[in-house]
Amino acid sequence: MASWEFCKNVFYTLCFCSLLFIGIPIHIDKKDDAATKAMLRTKFSSYVKTFNKTYAPDSEDYTARLNNFDNALKTIEQWNRNRKSDESALYGLTEFADLSSEEFGQKYLRKHHHSHGQRNHSGHGHHSHHSIAKRAILPNVPLKFDWRAKGVVTGVKDQGPCGACWAFSTVSAIETMVAIKTGKLTELSVQEVIDCARFGNLGCNGGDFCSLLEWLTTYNVSIGPATAYPLLLTNGVCKWEKGNAGVIVRNNFTCDYLIGNENLILHSLAYHGPVVVAVNAISWQYYLGGVIEHNCPGDPQLLNHAVVLVGYDLTAPIPYYIAKNSWGKRFGEAGYVKLAINSNVCGVACEVSSVDVE
Ligand SMILES: *[C@@H]1O[C@H](CO)[C@@H](O)[C@H](O)[C@H]1NC(C)=O
Ligand SMILES: *[C@@H]1O[C@H](CO)[C@@H](O)[C@H](O)[C@H]1NC(C)=O
Ligand SMILES: *[C@@H]1O[C@H](CO)[C@@H](O)[C@H](O)[C@H]1NC(C)=O
Ligand SMILES: *[C@@H]1O[C@H](CO)[C@@H](O)[C@H](O)[C@H]1NC(C)=O
């Protein structure tokens, strides 16, 4: 009896205690919750103003955006907490922060038509993956290099929701190769490439720069000036005709897999010209600036975007490549992204192309 009484008391006490423990936190949580929600709404309305977003308040859309924004804040906080230095990538509220990660991927990225080893060779094997053969001793590269400083890189473009990163990046590299060769920097028509390129390329619905280069060289396509064939960011009817004036890509372009051989990327950058690379850009949704070293896995099956590398800096505390993106000048560092060297960050070494022009 006594022992039952004792047990009962203990039991009741335990219950009471746990009720207290459960009860008090719930009470505090509710208050906190309301305060957190209010703070979130305040932050969100300031975000909405800054980025000129228009949602009907309390509409379904507004609620979904608010939820995405809440998730964005959490991810940003977590990634920034793990920063190792002031040079490390900094994440924050970008114009994309009200999209879910899936929406961001669907709108701005395209599943990369991974061409490594699957490219349409059809007798054109001259740009095979010969990087390993080139591995021999490389001359030292300069400690830093930037084609922009030579005045041979055109301005940053904005692809908007047109998934033609493969065209923007390749055309940018070609523009620079023309400028290196002729001393004249001219913008070439990305729209021509969007409308005309075949071999699996689908205009704004995605493509691959290696198969674009294959197509350009197979048909000896001339890329005309941007002024003659202006950017519309939609899939249009191809208006290119054989014999049109424009730039022709030489058929000795490269398309290499350089994981573990990133010194070859540096070598190409310093001694040849910009290189086009495929990347996984899903984490760039919140990128503000600094060198990306983490949160950006480089598995080949994750590739979903293409950019052009225009330089590098080995003297920086975290050595980095300078990548020109096509999401407008407001993105990242005036439209550019810094990617750490030597660890296949964002998959930067999975598919690397150099081009030459006739
Ligand atoms: C928002 O609109 C204002 C006024 O039109 C403009 O000055 C500002 O640059 C816009 N901001 C963004 C992020 O688009
Ligand atoms: C491969 O290239 C040939 C032209 O050389 C073309 O007719 C064919 O459609 C291409 N195949 C693919 C899958 O792109
Ligand atoms: C490619 O086109 C250019 C100019 O349109 C022409 O001069 C050249 O001979 C062509 N080359 C081939 C291989 O068709
Ligand atoms: C293509 O060939 C030219 C001349 O032989 C050479 O200078 C250039 O480096 C080559 N381009 C590539 C991308 O290998």
TrEMBL record:
> Cathepsin propeptide inhibitor domain spans which residues?
44-104
| Annotated ranges, domain Peptidase C1A papain C-terminal | 141-356
Q: Which residues cross the membrane?
A: 9-28
Cross-referenced CDD domains: Peptidase_C1A
Please give the PROSITE patterns that the UniProt record associates with this protein.
THIOL_PROTEASE_CYS (PS00139), THIOL_PROTEASE_HIS (PS00639)
Task: List the keywords (alphabetical).
Answer: Disulfide bond, Hydrolase, Membrane, Protease, Thiol protease, Transmembrane, Transmembrane helix, Zymogen
Q: Which domain of life is it from?
A: Eukaryota
PANTHER family in the cross-refs: CYSTEINE PROTEASE FAMILY C1-RELATED
Q: What family does this chain come from, according to its entry?
A: Belongs to the peptidase C1 family.
Protein name, entry field = Cathepsin
> What organism is this sequence from?
Nesidiocoris tenuis
